[in-house]
Amino acid sequence: MPIGNPPPQVASEVLGPAGSTARAGVRAARGRRRGNQRFHRADRLAPYILVAPAVLIIAGLRLYPLALGVNFSFTGDGDRNGQAVGLDNYSALFDDPLFTAAMRNVGLLVLLLPVAVAIPGLLATLIYLRVPGHRVYRGVYFFPAVLSPVIIGAIFNLLLAFDGPANSLLGAVGLGPVDWLGDPDTAMYAVVGVHIWATFGMALVVFLAGFATLDPSLIDAARVDGASIPKVVRHVIVPGLSQTIQFVVVTTMIGMLTSMFGLLYVMTGGGPEGSTYLPEYYIWFQQGQMGRPALASAASTVLFGVMLVVGMLQLAVLRRSGRED
Fold first, then answer.
1. Single Gene Ontology BP term (predicted)?
2. Among residues 305, 208, 300, 301, which one has the least CA distance to residue 248?
C-alpha cells in the first residue's frame, strides 16, 4: 500500500474522537479566514461604493457635457454647421477685439483677487475678535449675498449715475464728478467693486466657519506674549486658516469669472466700447445674439482652461507660502 495520508474514514478509525475534533477546528479556522478575507475585501470596496453616485452624477452632468462642448468647438457655424474646422474657431477668437478685451479683464480680475479675499477675511477676523456690534455686522455683511444681481445692478446704476449720489458726495468735498459706468477706464473697476460688495458675504461665512476650527488658546498665548493684532493675524490666524484661505481664493476666482453676467448685463451691457466684456458675457453674446454656438463653445473651452490654470497656480502659491510660514 503506498505511503501517504490515510483516507478520511481510516483516519477517523485510527484517531478517534480527537481526530474529528481537530478536523472540525481546522474547518472552523478556514471558515473564519475566508470570512475575514470577505470582510476586508468589502471594507476596501466601501469607499468606492460610497463615492460612486457622486462620481456618476459629475461624469454625467459635468464631464460628459464638457467633452461635448470641447468637441463642438472644433466644428463650424452657419453654412459650415457640423463640419470639422480644426482650430478655426480658436483663431477667430483671438482675432476678435472683444474677446481679447475680455481676456485682459480676466487678468484684471486676477490682480484684484487679493482685495476680494482680504475684505471678507479682515471683516471675519474683526467679528471673531468680537468688536463692538459684531453680531449686527454679521447679518449686515451677509445681506447683499441674498439679493438678486439684477436688483443690485439697478441700485448701483442709480448710485453711480453721472448726476447720482456718489458724484454729489464727491462734489461736496471739492472733487469733480466721475463717469463711473460711461468711462472705459473706470467702468470695469466699478462693476468689479459692486460684485465684491455683493458677494463677499458668502466668503465671510466660510471664514467664520474656519475660525470655529481655530484653537483660541493660540491667540490667547500670542496676546499674553504681547503680540499686536497684525502679528496675531499674520503668524497665528493666517497659518491656522490656510486651508480655508485656499478654498475662498479658488471659489472667489471662479465666482468672478462665471457669476458677473447679471451685473454686466444690467450695469454696462458690455460697454462702453467693450471695456467690460468678460468671457462669460462674450459667450452669451456669441451664442444668444450672434447665433454662433461653435464659437461660443470655443470661448467656453478657453475659459475653462484659464480657470484651471489660474486655480492650480493660486493653490501652488498658497501652499508654498503656508509651508514658509
1. transmembrane transport
2. 208
**151 within domain boundaries:** yes
Residue with cell 461624469: 59
CATH number of the domain where residue 269 is located = 1.10.3720.10
DSSP 139-184: HHHHGGGGS-HHHHHHHHHHHTSTTSHHHHHHHHTT-----TTT-T
Number of domains in the chain: 2
Residue 276: closest CA among 252, 260, 255, 293: 260
Amino acid letter for position 138 = R
Indicate the residue type of 19: G
| 47-70 confidence digits (pLDDT tens) | 888 888 988 998 888 889 889 999
User: Domain range holding 236?
Assistant: 91-324
Residue 131 to residue 137: CA distance in whole angstroms: 10
Residue 15 has a pLDDT of: 45
In a shared domain, residues 117 and 165: yes
The pTM (predicted TM-score) of the whole model is: 0.79
Q: For position 108, what pLDDT does the model report? A: 93
Q: Which residues contact 138 (CB under 8 A, 6 or more apart)?
A: 127, 204, 208
20 is a domain residue: no
| Nine cell digits for residue 109 | 480680475
Q: What contacts 24+ positions apart, CB below 8 Å, involve 314-321?
A: 314/113, 314/246, 314/249, 314/250, 314/253, 315/246, 315/249, 315/250, 318/242, 318/245, 318/246, 318/249, 319/246
30 belongs to a structural domain: yes
- Verify that 228 and 135 share a domain, yes or no: yes
Burial degree of 57 (CB within 10 A; 0-12, 13-18, 19+): exposed
The one-letter amino acid code at 104 reads: R
Give how far Cα 10 sits from Cα of 7, 25, 237, 307, Å. Answer: 5, 19, 78, 77
Tell whether 251 is covered by a domain: yes
Q: Is the same domain home to 46 and 140?
A: no
